[in-house]
Structures are given as C-alpha cells and as structure tokens.
Amino acid sequence: MSDTLKTIPEPIPDPASVKAEMLKIYPAKTRKKREKQIVLNEPDAPPEIGANSRTIPGIITQRGCTYAGCRGVVMGPIYDLLQITHGPVGCGFYAWLSRRNLVRPAKGQTNYLQYCMNTDMQEDQIIFGGEKKLKQAIKEAYEIFKPKAIAILATCPVGLIGDDIHTVARQMKEELGINVMAFSCEGYKGVSQSAGHHIANNGVFKNIIGLDDKPDEAEFNMNILGEYNIGGDAWEIDALLRKCGIHVTSTLSGDVSYDQVKKSHTVMLNGVMCHRSINYIAEMMEKKFGIPWIKVNFIGAEATAKTLRKIAKFFDSKKLSDRVEEVIAQEMIDLRPVREEIKARHQGKKAALFVGGSRAHHYQDLFRDIGMEIVSAGYEFAHRDDYEGRKVLPTIKVDADSRNIEELHVEPDPARFKPTKTPDQIEALKAGGFTFKDYEGMMTEMKKNTLVIDDITHHEMEKLIEIYKPDIIGSGIKDKFVIEKMGVPCKQLHSYDYSGPYAAFTGAVNFYREVDRMLTTKVWKFITPPWEKAPQAAAELIHASKMGGAKKGGETKSWRKPAADAGEV
Ligand code: CFM
C-alpha cells in the first residue's frame, strides 16, 4: 500500500478531534475506559486497542450474550442435532430462526431448525430446581423425534440456581443410548457472545468431532470453519469450490448435519472464515489430528480470488491451480462490468462498519471493490488479535472474565494424528511466502489514522454520523433504525434482513447491486437529519460538550430534542 493511499483524503475531519468529541460527554471513569477502545489506526504497527472487556452499564451496546454465541451462532445451524434451551421461553424464542442461517437438508434428512425447543422455566423451577423438568423435556423430545443426538443449552437462571445439566446429560445419554451433551453457556458467562463461541467450540470438539473416522472420498478435501450460511453464503462458497474441484466435508456451522461434523477431522485442510468464532476448533484439530489451518475470506471479489489461489497453493497441484485460474477468469467476466458500472457511481463515497467479530473487516473489501473509502470500523466483541493480528496473542492479559471459560488441554491423538504435510513441506511453503495460522487482523488493512472503535455506543455512533456524514453504514439491527432516522442508509450485515448471499463472486455482485440501490434511492431525500432540523441545538451541544459535557442533573441537551425546547442549556 502506498503512503498516499494510507492517508485519509482532506475533507474527512481530523480523527483525533472526532475521538475527543465522542468522549467529552462521558463521566471521567467511562471516558477512561472508552478512550482505550477508540484508537487511531497505524496499519504498519497497529496500536493496542481495548477489547473483549465488559461493557459499562448504562451504555447502549450492540452486543449479545454468551447463550446467543453458543446456541444461536455456533450450535444453531447443526440442523439435525436436537437442541433444547433450558430456561425461560424468551431465550428460546431469541434463538429461533432470527439469524437466517439457512439450511437445505437433503431428502429424508431431519431438520429441527424450524422448531423452538425449550423447557419454559417458571418460578417453580427457579425456586425448587429445573433438572426434573429438563429430564422430562428430553424424554418427551426423544419420544416424538427419535433424534441422533441432543444438546442442552443453558440460560442465565440455570447457572444462578445451580441446575447440574451435565449430570442430566450423562444420565440421559445412558438411558436413551444416544449422544446427549450439555453446554454451560449462561448468558452472563462472559462479556459478550464471544465466550459462547468458545464454550460451543469446546463442546463440539469434545462430543462430536472424531466420532466417525471414515473420510469422504475426494482428492482435495477440506472444511470451511466459521461460515454460517447467512442468507446462503455457504452455498455460494461450496458451489465455487466444487467448480474448482475442491470438496467440503463440513462447514462449521452452516447448513451442516451432525454426521458431517462427526467426520470433520478427516480432511486435509481447515479454512477459517470467521477467526473470532472458531479459531479454537481450528487450533484443537491441528493439535489432535494434525490438520493445518489457514485464514480464508470469500467476501469480496479480490479476497475470494486470493483465497482460491491460496488453497490451490496448499494442495500443491498444477491441475488444481490451473482450474482455479480458469474459474476466477470465468467469474470475473460476469462480475467486472457490474463492478465497474457501480464503481463509477460511488467512487470515493464513505462507508463505516460496526459488526460482530469478523464482518467489520471482511466487508471492507466489498466496499473497496466499488471504490468506496472506509472512514471508520470496529467490532462488537472481537479480541485484540482480531484487530491487531495473532502476533499479539501472547501479550493479551487473561482477565477474570476470560478465565471463566474452560481451555481444553489437547494432545496429539496416538492413532489419528496424521499431519497432511510433512514439516519439510510446510517449511517449503512458508519459504515461498505461504502463511499458516495467519490472521493479521483488521487494522493492518485499514488506512492510517482511520478511527477504530471497539463496542461502539449509540452516542459515539451518532457523533460519528454527525461529523463524518458517511454515505452508508454496515451495522446491526440494534442501531439500524437510529442510523436510518439520521438519513444514512444502513446495510444490516448480520442476517442481511431479507437479502444475500454476499459471499464469493456471485454474492459480491449481489452486494454491489444492493449498495448501489441503497445509495441511489431517493428515499433519503425525504428524511431531514436531526442536525438540519435543529441546527441551533447541534451547535449548542457541541458548545456544551466543549465546556465539560453534562448539565443539570446529568441531563445533556441533545439535537434530538425539538427545536422549541432546545434553547435552555
Ligand atoms: Fe463470526 Fe458470524 Fe461475525 Fe460471529 Fe455474530 Fe453473525 Fe456477526 Mo451477527 S460468527 S463473529 S457472533 S462472522 S451472528 S455469522 S453476523 S455478530 S460479524
């Protein structure tokens, strides 16, 4: 990247003063914490960012809970594993199809995704314990569905009252003769859904992976880890790899069956899409079975081409490399004209991204494909390595919240540790510039001085919009309407609302068109952003925050108030 490219063009306000403006309104303690979570980027030597720490009470965060990360994210898409939420019905409902992790089970295969299985915990169970009801629910579910396996997922009250779901699972496993596993993924277990990913990774690794040693017959056989088939993304990736001659045994966890997960240790390579949610399984599979993992990214045309070439290089086959080049060339024939046409309309426009633990990085490529600038980005719950790169892993302090989550001790399997590559082959690949376990993080690919904001608050988002006036924001449902009421289109990048897929080449074209549609629609002209409705109030707010922030019992005047009563600061 050249130096001129790394510097933000002139019209964008100075990020240091934007940061100061965002922080001004906070009480000292909050400001001190948030200060560490908002940094000015330095791509060559990313500065340390505060991440994976507790959200301050009272701040409006976009984060979800540990149960959501375990039940909703990693476990949810395994479609024929019967999953019972032990807890109140609201938690069960929350994990019921809201994420759009689509499935297309083959004929005759079971699909439990359309059900919402829940113990419907009531006051009675909170006082006298819920184990009896849980056992009843498992028996009832077994009698009706006769599933291959059952997972029990804990919600907050389960941990608070001390229900022993692991003993229940053991007893039921013996009684029913099927695999029954329990996940202590109470919502409060960690600071965000990230802890839930780790708990799910541990559970899947201990209880499912390795149960079937028979590999699929394929010359080039791999898993895609950390891909959840939102809006059909995994289908695009699978179809593209198939075109190249690469077989995917298991996509963890997107449109995947329990039986596929059981044999996912029989592949030659793991490609990690979302590093945040699944790096644990990738690491453990490498240690136990000798399967190397590499970072892949199928979001964006250039990123997809780069990933295909990287996979081909790993398999070290001329036939595969030639085929990959042919496929890329073919796909680009369709993609290029659409991209160029849309790029001409939106070159230089500004985007900001605040999503989860990987998409705020991956989707930058898609916006750059059509010539757009990323003015600011951040994750909701990622760790420092997702921002600064895996090289910082040894320097990350393990706090009490992280210590809460079990670290499995994994040894090479005496019979099944069969490395795909010899140490010499690995060294030769590395010498040629190939990188294993290589996630470099979001910051190395962002421009110098762009604002990187972890766990952004609504207040900071509003400030960001007011000052930067981005043309589009990629974010989630919790802030989508706040953003759109300010006159800025928001591309919902979690479930994609109603659209997608956005992965691979076909998905990229869908995304370019969607962004084009959102940026060119005239609807935004009918919305008067608050600062135009009450410019006086906006000016006063800025003045008030310069003078030290909150006034009158902690209440601060906001430009959100109608102009009529916005005068008495
Ligand atoms: Fe990984 Fe995800 Fe994400 Fe994630 Fe998620 Fe998601 Fe996400 Mo929503 S696993 S970290 S916990 S890519 S549900 S499919 S979109 S926040 S950026």
Structure, explained:
There is one protein chain. This protein is an alpha/beta fold. It has 24 helices and 13 strands. It has helices at 3-6, 15-23, 28-37, 66-75, 89-94, 123-128, 131-145, 156-161, 165-176, 193-207, 233-244, 258-262, 275-289, 301-315, 318-346, 359-369, 384-388, 400-403, 423-431, 458-468, 477-485, 504-520, 530-533, 535-546; strands at 38-40, 82-86, 149-154, 179-183, 221-225, 247-252, 269-272, 293-295, 350-354, 373-378, 451-453, 472-475, 490-492. The chain has a 6-stranded mixed β-sheet with strand order 1-11-10-9-12-13, sandwiched between helices. A 4-stranded parallel β-sheet has the order 6-5-7-8, sandwiched between helices. The chain has a 3-stranded parallel β-sheet with strand order 2-3-4, sandwiched between helices. Helix 16 links the parallel strand 9 (350-354) and strand 10 (373-378). Helix 2 (15-23) runs antiparallel to helix 20 (458-468) and helix 11 packs across helix 22. The longest helix has 29 residues, at 318-346. The model is unreliable at 1-10 and 548-569 (pLDDT under 50). The structure holds FE-MO-S cluster (CFM).
Strand order of the largest sheet: 1-11-10-9-12-13
Roughly how much helix do the residues carry, as a percent range? 40-55%
Please tell me what the overall shape is.
globular
List segments where confidence is low: pLDDT < 50 over at least 5 consecutive residues.
1-10, 548-569
Radius of gyration in whole Å, from Cα?
A: 24 Å
What bound compounds does this protein have?
FE-MO-S cluster
Q: Mean of the pLDDT scores? A: 92
**Class computed from helices, strands and strand pairing:** alpha/beta
